[in-house]
What does this fold into?
Amino acid sequence: ELKVEQNPLFLSMQEGKNYTIYCNYSTTSDRLYWYRQDPGKSLESLFVLLSNGAVKQEGRLMASLDTKARLSTLHITAAVHDLSATYFCAVGFGNEKLTFGTGTRLTIIP
Amino acid sequence: DTAVSQTPKYLVTQMGNDKSIKCEQNLGHDTMYWYKQDSKKFLKIMFSYNNKELIINETVPNRFSPKSPDKAHLNLHINSLELGDSAVYFCASSQDWGSTDTQYFGPGTRLTVL
It folds into this structure.
C-alpha cells in the first residue's frame, strides 16, 4: 500500500527566510500534487508534477519531483505571512486512488 | 460561480440520528469523491464515483452510503451517527478516473455529533 510522509509536520519560520517541505512516498507513482489549505477552508491546488525532474514555480513557491528518490519538495523563498497554511502533497498511480500526506502546518512569523 | 459546492456547511446533530450531505459540481467532470478529514487534518478518501458508478469504496462503516443521481451530484447519507463520525467531509471532482488532472475540492461540511 502506498504510504506518503511529509516532514516536517509543523514549521514555524520568520518572514524573509527560505525553507523546504519534503514529501516522500513508498511505491511507484506517475503523478504528484501539492495542495494548500487555509484554516477552516477547502483545499486549493498549487502544483501538478507528472515526470521525473519536473519543476513548477508560482510566486514564492517552487515544487520539484524526483521519481527515482520518490521525493518531492516544496521550496518557499523569502516567506511572507500570507503563506501561512497547511500544505499537503498527494500521490497517485494509474487508476489507484490519491493518497495524501500528513500535511505540514506552516506558520510565518513577522 | 462555485465549481464544487456542498450543503450544509455545518451540521450539528445527536448520536443515533441520520443525516445527509449534498455535493454538486458544475465543472462537467466525470469523477466525484468523498473525503474525510479528521481533527489531526489527516485526509482520507471514502468513496469515488465515475459516471455515476461506484469505483472506490474504502473501509468505511456501512452506515455511510453514497448516492450519485447524475454525474454532477454525489450525496452522502450517514445512518446512526456516532461520536467518531465528527469530522470535516469534503467532496471533490476531477475530469475523469485515472486522469492526471487535479482534483477540485468543495468547501467542506463540518459535522459535529453530540
